[in-house]
Amino acid sequence: MTQAHHVYDVVLEHVTVSELTQRWAVVTGHTKMALPLGADIRWQCGGQEGRSTCCSPDGTTLDFYFPTHLCNQIDTLKLVNKPQRALLDPNATFLLLYGAKNEPMARHFAEALTASNLGTKIELALIDLSKSDASLSFKRFDMAVVMADESISLHALETWLTNSRCRVNEFTYLINHS
């Protein structure tokens, strides 16, 4: 199998870093590209490559989640300039599923959704596959946004939600694991 080659040619200007947790920070900067909230961002920093999620509520700056341990090499950060399409429906109801280590990031993303007037309903839930979640019983959501801190299969999530008597039409993995 081959993977598409990415050209990391976009440099951020006026970069600021805001730490969310020991693992995650929000990088903010100005660039020639504007991406919609929830868009996929491919980055290269200090010889490492990764993927993150745009969390810019207004599109005037580029905000995205970034591993904290690479922030001391932020001056080498470059992004892939590729066309993106909006991934989030402004009329959707959202369930933000998060791993315990990613709770601050999930709350930050929920605030960005609210600031952008996206979603008629936004609910957060901790992923705990060992037991059903009674707070989700008989609820329906258009989209589940997954911010897990370990690799979780779609089948395992669907089974857990079914056991919790919750229905979701579509899943989007923003952060699966680092």
Label this structure with key terms.
single chain; 178 residues; mainly beta; four-stranded antiparallel beta sheet; four-stranded parallel beta sheet; 2 helices; 11 strands
Secondary-structure map with pairings?
Layout: E1 8-10, E2 13-19, E3 24-30, E4 40-45, E5 48-53, E6 62-67, E7 78-80, E8 93-98, H1 103-115, E9 121-126, E10 140-147, H2 154-163, E11 167-175
Parallel strand pairs: 8-9, 8-10, 10-11
Antiparallel strand pairs: 1-7, 2-3, 3-6, 4-5, 4-7
Give the structure's gist in a few sentences.
With 178 residues, this protein is mainly β. It is 13% helix and 38% strand.
Question: Nearest-angstrom radius of gyration?
Answer: 17 Å
Low-confidence spans: pLDDT under 50, at least 5 residues?
Answer: none
Q: How would you sum up the global shape?
A: globular
Report the total helices. Answer: 2
Mean pLDDT: 87
Helical content stands at: 10-25%
- What's the number of extended β-strand segments? 11
Structural class: mainly beta
